[in-house]
Amino acid sequence: MCKWRLIDTGPLEGPANMALDEALLNCFQKDPTRPVLRLYGWNPATLSVGRYQDAAAALNLDLCREEGVPVVRRMTGGGIIYHAAEVTYSVVCSPEHLGDRTGVKDGFRKLCGFLLGTYQRLGLDARFAVDWNPAEERLGERTSFCFAGKEEFDVVVNDRKIGGNAQRRLSGAILQHGSIPLQNRVQQGVRYLKEPAPGAARSVSLSELGHAPEPDDLKRLLAESFQELMSVDLVPEPPTDQEMVTAGKLEEHKYRCPSWTFEGRS
Amino acid sequence: MAKFYTKEHEWVEMAGAQATVGISEHAAHELGDITYVELPKIGKSVKQFDALAAIESVKAASDIYAPVSGKVAEVNQALNDAPELVNQGAESQGWICKLDGVNEAELGALMDAAAYDVYLKGL
């Protein structure tokens, strides 16, 4: 059975989180034999914007500054996420690690399968949006706020979206990260948007569904589900020295720089 | 002139020493609705299979690699306002850029349309 690394860094600041995800991807490209599942959190609560979003057009940056809410730009696609009261995962692997499902859509289905499995372990009727009501709802509408829109392989419970996921593909390597909301902080997050995001009210969290797992218990469920759905062994280990050095440089020279955060230039 | 394809799903079509480059219909379909294309800078020199541009769909951001070496001579400015052109015609109006100074010998490392079809069936 293929061995994957399980890296649990606990909660970090936004720039450190995004720098480590990119460092894991960069180091994996050089040695694509050791795929990774990383689990983490955010402290303090942070707004992340997608790789190509116009942060100033989508966010009320003055309010963010006034209230001391940090903003960080991801290297992945997708919309704005307010990271608070959530467990976050990232996966770094090659298309080959997803079996023969190397397309973007199939890759999403495969990689998001462990989220479905996790929610089902909690007794929830979780499905992919595309499997819930495929005939009547338009999926994939563009929206600046991640939780306000639904994609085919977003996870829904009772037709309400739970969490969000985004992907970056390089030659021979994939980074996917996403959120599992413990509590619903969407209404706090949408305060920072310039435009209303009506669909956001339809998103849901674990606590609203009657589950209040401790972050460590949720991480254990995620790891169990991942091992089962991906047919892999997870081996807990910390990031390597090389990964930490790379992450430190990326944090200092990219993810803490206004040119990257607000203009997308690195 | 025939198109040639990479394993990463870019296409290239030669006209003299100039190459037009884009992503394949298959790649556009896989990506879903394209929301943004990061075009290369005119004058940028790239080597074969180096990162050339980037493309974002509703969820995934992906690099686009140069199918051949060359210097960027022209970019498809229409994609700035209408990235969906890639969905509407990835191998026609959704082209990404044109490269000058291309060595046709590099096409030998690519697949022709028939070989690319076989490659897609094997995925």
Automatic annotation (TrEMBL), chain A:
Keyword Lyase: no
InterPro entries: aa-tRNA-synth_II/BPL/LPL, BPL_LPL_catalytic, Octanoyltrans_LipM/LipL
Domain BPL/LPL catalytic, chain residue ranges per copy: 31-234
Keyword Ligase attached: yes
Highest taxon of source: Bacteria
Source species of the chain: Geomonas anaerohicana
Keywords: Ligase
Record-given protein name: Lipoate--protein ligase family protein
Pfam family, one: LplA-B_cat
Automatic annotation (TrEMBL), chain B:
Cofactor-binding details, from the entry: Binds 1 lipoyl cofactor covalently.
InterPro entries assigned to the protein according to its UniProt record, in alphabetical order: 2-oxoA_DH_lipoyl-BS, Biotin_lipoyl, GCV_H, GCV_H/Fam206, GCV_H_sub, Single_hybrid_motif
Positions of the Lipoyl-binding domain: 18-100
Keywords, alphabetical: Lipoyl
Co-factor(s): (R)-lipoate
Similarity field: Belongs to the GcvH family.
Function, as annotated: The glycine cleavage system catalyzes the degradation of glycine. The H protein shuttles the methylamine group of glycine from the P protein to the T protein.
Protein name: Glycine cleavage system H protein
Species in which this protein is naturally found: Geomonas anaerohicana
Gene, per the UniProt record: gcvH
